[in-house]
Amino acid sequence: MWRWEDHKKMRLPQDLLLILASVIFLAFTIGYFAYFRRPEGTPWPMRVLAILSGATTGGIISEITDTRATWGSFVPALTLLLLSAALYGWAILTTRRQRLSLAFSGDAPDFLLAEGPYRLIRHPFYTAYLLYWLGGTIAARQPLLLLAVGVMAAGFAWAALREEAKFAASPLAANYAAYRRRTGMFLPWRIFGA
């Protein structure tokens, strides 16, 4: 049973970030297992990224638990975590009728999404994940976690480039080239320029 005395013991910024980071990662995990199509099973690079993702998140959550969050780290961390959750949810809603294949799948694309977050960026799921790990690293106040975020960013950039190569080799190549010119890979062109 909740009591006011227990509330006084809470470390509000830290506890809020810990709960939010855990809930978002749970949503990512459910999406990984239940949402994305696996036409050929789970490709080995995706398995590696999933393991790294879990390890990075474990490090973030462990550090958030051990580190007293300050309001200076709380605000940017909270902002990035909420942006991550919003973008992930928006991407799920946009793709619910045409579910995407898991990263690194070898199947050829048979449709092009240009609605929802896909109007702004070509890889909103990857952007959501990267916002999450960046926000979590700020929440954890552990600069060494930036190395893990860099590895994750490289892994998702590799996945994105492979997906774009699949589009370039598909009947959707011309449409995808036009789409690519007006959207950013991970950041919107119109907001951040080149």
Automatic annotation (TrEMBL):
<protein>
    <recommendedName>
        <fullName>Isoprenylcysteine carboxylmethyltransferase family protein</fullName>
    </recommendedName>
</protein>
<keyword id="KW-0472">Membrane</keyword>
<dbReference type="Pfam" id="PF04191">
    <property type="entry name" value="PEMT"/>
</dbReference>
<dbReference type="GO" id="GO:0012505">
    <property type="term" value="C:endomembrane system"/>
</dbReference>
<feature type="transmembrane region" description="Helical">
    <location>
        <begin position="16"/>
        <end position="36"/>
    </location>
</feature>
<keyword id="KW-1133">Transmembrane helix</keyword>
<feature type="transmembrane region" description="Helical">
    <location>
        <begin position="144"/>
        <end position="161"/>
    </location>
</feature>
<feature type="transmembrane region" description="Helical">
    <location>
        <begin position="71"/>
        <end position="93"/>
    </location>
</feature>
<feature type="transmembrane region" description="Helical">
    <location>
        <begin position="48"/>
        <end position="65"/>
    </location>
</feature>
<keyword id="KW-0812">Transmembrane</keyword>
<dbReference type="InterPro" id="IPR007318">
    <property type="entry name" value="Phopholipid_MeTrfase"/>
</dbReference>
